[in-house]
Amino acid sequence: MDEEDDILGYYNYENEFEEHSQTIIRYKPRPIEELVKETRFTRKEIQLMYRGFKQECPSGIVTEQMFKEIYSQFFPQGDCSNYARFIFSTIDQNSDGTVNFEDFLMGLSILSRGTIDEKLRWIFNLYDINKDGKVTKEELLMVITSIYELMGKFTNPLIDESTPKQHAETVFKKLNPKQEGVITMEDFIQTCYNDESILNSMSMLDTVF
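The line above is the sequence of EF-hand domain-containing protein; the predicted structure tokens follow.
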């Protein structure tokens, strides 16, 4: 490992961590050079994010329950359990029930610096709960309901049980122009590209970093 790797890589931190912790390291990411090539982050950014990730998750692995607990810190007034479950499933690229640093980094790269097309595909996968390539009205309702639960008492006006259903009905009609009973990836992307408000919201994610 050359001097630059020692300064900007993350394995120097990994070694330091192992020396001062009894936690078993269950997962180590691939070489940082590979992650730089596969994401839109610099070496220094990846190093900093890895440090933060390991401080929250010393073993290098995040379970769904751990993810929900971390997520709940950002939404203390609402119930984030269902929405966090859907996010976790989308980040969990190999569907093994765990998220590692690479899973986290790939998802963050898309959402913060990906193309509009990449972001829309990621969001479609979020709504495609059973990962069959189609979004049903029921799946849409489940995700929309989870968002209302997430906001808790901050929704104004306060919602009743019918509000998410009405919202889902409106969105489903908009995203299902062919009235085929399901939303396909193609329909979703095409409809979103034709909606200026959606495109603007996608562009705003570029300012995260």
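Note on the example: The two ends are 29 Å apart (CA to CA). The longest helix spans residues 137-151.
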